[in-house]
Please model this.
Amino acid sequence: MAKSFEEVLGRLQALGVPGVIASLDPEQASKADPLAPVPARKPGTKGPFGDPHLLVEAKRIPEVLRTLRDDPELRFEMLADVTGVDYAKEAANLGVIYVLLSLAHHTRLVLRADVPKAAPRLPSAVEIHPAANWHEREAGEMLGLVFEGHPDPRNILLSDDWVGFPLRKDYEFPVEYHGISCV
Amino acid sequence: MSEPARAATAPPRPVPPGAGDEHWVGDLRPGEREVLLDVKTQDMEINMGPQHPSTHGVLRVLLRADGEIVTGAQPHLGYLHRCAEKIGESVEFLQYLPYTDRYDYLAAMNNNLGYSMAVEKLMGVEVPERAQWIRTIFAELNRIGSHLISFGTYGLDIGAFTPFFYAFREREWMMALFEKVCGARLTYSYIRIGGVFNDLPEGWLEELGRFCDVFEEKWVEYNDLLSHNHIFVERTRNVGILPAEKAIAWGCTGPMLRGSGVAWDLRRDAPYSMYPRLEFDVCLGAGLKGTLGDCWDRYFVKLLEMKESIRILRQCLRQIGPGPVMADVPKTIRVPAGAGYVGVENPRGELGHYIVSDGGKISRRCRVRGPSFCNLSILGEMMPGTMLADSVAIIGSIDIVVGETDR
Model:
């Protein structure tokens, strides 16, 4: 049967996986980063309706993903998505989002790791989930995230000589590209 | 010296320069690479696409071939990149809806549904029951339409021209049904945030009933034409075998995953809309003609799913009742602050939307997880060791829509 977010969190804490910061309290979240969306909802309250996010220390991502995949009670064996979020121009951090799916327990889990914009580096998850390969390439070219240890960190959708990271909030549209006017 | 003996004594061929290039994903197993021929061969790089008819759009695959054997494959994407996610951060929620039509343009209704559901989740909107039924009907009807294209073009890829026309005969009727409801034949934008654009015209459901009857008769013809055709079976069975563990690890979804025998379907396993009240089977590959997870299995799962969709449509026709088709949603949609992921079962697999809102009219982030993108990522892993002539059969069986891989 489907496992609730609290059950997954409880299991991770029982296993003592390092790097799990648990989920942010709504009030805490708004204090820490006023522009970041509230990731968790207190049970019984109306809204916000989004998914609770499991916050993970960026450098611990591979370990957490491995535990989530291999623990018989969790078994998040499919990595559905990896992406990055630039919450605001003035935000200090970029969010990296991992969407996991447990086919065995019919459960979905959203992970979030924050990396500083000044040095947006975190370890790659390709070794644990090969599915991360192209998603990380895309997140890399779109938001400037650097996934350390990625086997093939080339651009995937953009051309190799594209300047800037289009999904950053401070991105400036190019005026011309190889002699083609863009305005 | 007899032919086989000479081949066996031939010294192993030196590995050509560039064989260890790190960009090549996957390679042959040790020893597999030496083709026992006393002819000197060298690896050749061949561009398949971006204008190749069997890549179904502008996909370019750089193949490395050693004679007739493929030793590596690198898909090059981006020829159809239209910045969907950037547009999602620049326009209002409702204004973005028509852009969703354009990722997987063969299943625009399903894309509309996925995006609408993601926004509705963050808004906490309850969609009226009749609207839910209509959505389910269109999701399934579009699934049939999409699988028909996949069936027809896969025949074309392999060299069977006729099935394509048979597929388009029924698809034409399906598109006429869509046209009657929303006026469009390809990019519908009919499913809106909060419900559907307008109610069904008079007599539409009766016509859908007739479509179901006719389609079920025609479905048998498809099998006679292609599924059990000896040449087609020989071209697709035991080709491009994808084991279940690999499919899961690489994030394959939809018919690609079910073709490998994994019983996973979001309609059943994470039900949304009206699917909890419908009875249907999850169609799986079973290695009927060859090995489990080969091209034929992936192809046949789609055929079976069309029949299941008809079964679902019939149940919808029985259960749909009168009522409003749109929830009380303001003209200018403001989404409360929050972030959420919603995945729906598109014809090609899980279409996911991850939306971040700050409480305003425009989303902060609108991430699209396209099933074709994820399914295609395994190509470099599947191709090494296959015959060059089979590459078309394998790429066709992955059934990508380039509008979605590139977005």
Notes: The longest strand of chain B covers residues 338-346.
